[in-house]
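hey
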């Protein structure tokens, strides 16, 4: 293996990412070295440099699929070549009340991938082995990567909603993660109501094919009062709309990886590790229908610039391996 790798790195706030040749990092005792194959892009990546000036330089990217190529002495759960996914949470203290209760995302010392530790816009990255997860074999690398932020949060919201007894649940906003979520919910026997953009006829048809009880476009309302609404879209108007569809005890959960912008919705954190494992087990019976748009690593800036226009409907992925 060569001693250096290519990475796209934030040097200064507001400046483009720079392609640099860096030493391949060596894993600490509890870390694995992952050879990155694909890294999904998220709106958070574009906010990173201005928000995180003190953390720079930093390699962004928090939706990574790659293969384990090396591990520290304390790691015995992965073998070389294991295909793993890495999402936002990168490391927690391991001994606070939140960590002991399997609620690592609430740990005060939580470090996030691509923010406080280097992420996946690079050929290799390190991760605490407790925050790397074997990904379902039915998903290709580029199919899995863009799900590792939005679908994980949506799943966390779904778990909160169903724990509170919700069975009749609205999914707000279309797109890639929504398709997977609708199918997964249908397979669980939940009643799914897909609320999409008024002109997203393709999405409405697909939602029905994936098992939604009802699919409609704004401003249509579901024919039933709902127990919960999961808002995957990143505009606050969707939350307001979802609230009008609720029954008396219903809640709206906002899953977007955006700042907390949605009054009247429950805050959703990243899921704890046990939930990520459950999700990946459930995903074994699910297939993706859409194809992500791919970019090479040096095109990361162009890909990030394309994000606001692509919206949530077409996932964007850096294909890191081999380019
Ligand atoms: Zn994200
Ligand atoms: Zn902790």
């Amino acid at each position: 293996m060569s001693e250096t790798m290519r990475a796209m790195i934030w040097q200064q706030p507001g400046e483009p990412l720079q392609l640099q040749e860096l030493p391949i990092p060596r894993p600490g005792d509890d870390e694995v070295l992952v050879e990155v194959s694909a890294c999904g892009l998220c709106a958070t990546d574009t906010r990173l440099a201005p928000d995180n000036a003190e953390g720079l330089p930093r390699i962004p990217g928090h939706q990574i699929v790659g293969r384990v190529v090396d591990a520290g002495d304390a790691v015995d759960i992965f073998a070389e070549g294991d295909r793993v996914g890495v999402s936002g949470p990168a490391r927690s203290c391991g001994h606070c009340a939140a960590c002991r209760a399997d609620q690592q995302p609430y740990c005060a010392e939580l470090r996030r991938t691509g923010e406080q530790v280097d992420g996946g816009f690079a050929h290799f990255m390190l991760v605490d082995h407790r925050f790397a997860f074997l990904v379902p074999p039915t998903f290709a690398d580029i199919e899995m990567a863009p799900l590792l932020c939005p679908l994980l949060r949506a799943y966390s919201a779904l778990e909160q909603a169903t724990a509170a007894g919700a069975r009749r649940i609205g999914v707000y906003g279309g797109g890639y993660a929504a398709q997977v979520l609708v199918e997964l919910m249908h397979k669980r026997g939940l009643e799914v109501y897909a609320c999409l953009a008024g002109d997203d006829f393709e999405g409405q048809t697909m939602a029905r094919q994936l098992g939604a009880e009802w699919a409609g476009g704004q401003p249509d309302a579901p024919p039933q009062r709902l127990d919960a609404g999961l808002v995957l879209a990143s505009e606050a108007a969707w939350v307001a709309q979802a609230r009008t569809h609720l029954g008396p005890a219903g809640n709206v959960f906002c899953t977007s990886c955006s700042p907390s912008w949605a009054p009247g919705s429950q805050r959703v954190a990243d899921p704890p590790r046990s939930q990520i494992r459950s999700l990946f087990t459930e995903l074994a019976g699910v297939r993706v229908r859409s194809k992500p748009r791919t970019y090479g690593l040096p095109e990361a800036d162009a890909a990030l610039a394309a994000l606001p226009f692509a919206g949530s409907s077409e996932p964007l992925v850096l294909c890191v391996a081999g380019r």
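The first strand starts at residue 4 and ends at 9. Residues 92-93, 96, 98-99, 107, 109 surround zinc ion (ligand 2) (CB under 6 Å).
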